[in-house]
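Troubleshooting log. The previous structure file for this entry was overwritten by mistake, so regenerating from the original sequence record. Sequence copied from the archived sheet and checked twice against the printout by T.R.
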Amino acid sequence: MSLHQEITNQALTPEQEIYRENILDHYREPKNAGTLLEYDIKHRELNPLCGDEITVYILFDAKQKIKDIRFDGHGCAISQASMSMFTEMIQGKTVKEVAQIKKEDILKMLGIPIGIVRMKCALLSLRTVQKGLVQSKEQRAKSKEIMSRA
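Regenerated output below.
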């Protein structure tokens, strides 16, 4: 299966063709790929249906905005391009702003029809970041509770 077919087999409008090319560009040359040595959040998610895997590293500034974000992983063009595009979308945003991003926002960002088979691939980026944020919040709450008992 070619990369073009992997993204979608549906006929696309000229505008959607541009979005498909953007997805291919992000897959071939992902933005913010790699790891961070210093981070506030590190979280890994897996799509067991197709083997896509993403680990995200997030560093916040003093105002709790995303100062730097990187990701590492492997998988299909949709999952990896979605993560690359998503890192650009959320750079500089607060935890609250990122928590409010919905499935529809990711699908709009991708700009092409995503079939049911590829939906989990497309949304792995959102799930990885949002679960990482929740896990970090839970760990901070647990640490505060432990410290208050000491």
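The chain has six helices and three strands. Archived copy saved in two places this time.
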